[in-house]
């Protein structure tokens, strides 16, 4: 096995992308006239790429993606070059017991292999050496149904540290915590494919041009896999880290599917090369946390239907344009104020900047009929805000029942008080709310040292 060197083709590489928490700007960020304040998270999805060695004379053309933290999570793909500029299309190979399709992985392979086949000039189109991609998600993306002892017997902690927990379930049965796993995996897998297959002189993940290509391509793949065009704040955060984010124009996303005539040229042209001016009009204004301040997440363990909520809010906005414009405008002012408070390190103003976000989101929820800050969350967050060291709270993103974000003093004492509060609240209310280990962080996509993942190279 070879280590990564700069000029080598098909090197062993590891990359990681963070999850996200949208502190302010849910719903309004879908409209390009507004923005959202989003933080990256310490929970990252790592992808390790390496060539599958073949014996001399043996020809296999297989790309394998596996998520060893889940049962039945090895996806094998064959691929072919489709006529009429249809690009590269992968097909899942079923070689043993049936494995559920993974739409996000399959779609990412279709988009990224097509891009590489057409953008990498030295490559014989349609020719990719067999490779394996191992996906390792930091623990907080899913609630664990297992005790640590069960986890050990399910095979976790290969590296001796339980760093990547085994969930003992299939992905379908895992309980997501809403940290943006699909955007992180699409972005991380896109970066790993580009870094593994592209000429290193043409693609460098650490350069501004490399990030632009990664961003554009991952947004297209993510929109296609989701079957809708969201604001893209989650993919943008996976690439660039924390920011005040203004979305791209939805009209940029081509309406042609993998394999259809013209798909390859459209994708390659739309993504661009990151150097020449492209049409992507998103904007990223970085933000960071003041020293001594942490963003932490509370797992509320329920689950929300974001699609239904967005429809309700949009129906209300269309029926009451005047009221909606007022609420949208006030929320936009909150995004800007909170960003300014954090950038300026004005810790004592965080609470005052966050409170109106909750009030306005509640109002939007009441007026539209979407449970953005349900009453059960209101009661818990009102009480949590009284805990010493807590600056402010919010139901992040689209809102709902599945998570809460807490901006608080970054010290052991505050953490202990918040944990005790949540334990007490769980007992009193017969629900399960807990403080996750994950915290807000600023960094986006990152190249990782392959050596930390050696034990996952089979
Ligand atoms: N560890 C993983 N390995 C492989 N695929 C994964 C993994 N985690 C997530 N996925 C893919 O992402 C999909 C989940 O995407 P979905 O958009 O429902 O969740 P999410 O992005 O975590 O949600 P949210 O936007 O609420 O945070 C899974 O069905 C699977 O296709
Ligand atoms: C409602 C929306 O603005 C935010 C959804 O955020 P989340 O997936 O709940 O973190 C949708 C979007 O921005 O794509």
UniProtKB/TrEMBL annotation:
Associated pathway: Isoprenoid biosynthesis; isopentenyl diphosphate biosynthesis via mevalonate pathway; isopentenyl diphosphate from (R)-mevalonate: step 2/3
GO CC list: peroxisome
Molecular function terms from GO: ATP binding; phosphomevalonate kinase activity
Catalytic reaction equation(s): (R)-5-phosphomevalonate + ATP = (R)-5-diphosphomevalonate + ADP
GO BP, one annotated term: isopentenyl diphosphate biosynthetic process, mevalonate pathway
Domain GHMP kinase C-terminal positions: 353-422
UniProt-listed Enzyme Commission number(s): 2.7.4.2
Cell inner membrane listed as a keyword: no
Ranges annotated as spanning the membrane: none
Keywords recorded for this protein, A-Z: ATP-binding, Kinase, Lipid biosynthesis, Lipid metabolism, Nucleotide-binding, Steroid biosynthesis, Steroid metabolism, Sterol biosynthesis, Sterol metabolism, Transferase
Family the UniProt entry places it in: Belongs to the GHMP kinase family. Mevalonate kinase subfamily.
Protein name: Phosphomevalonate kinase
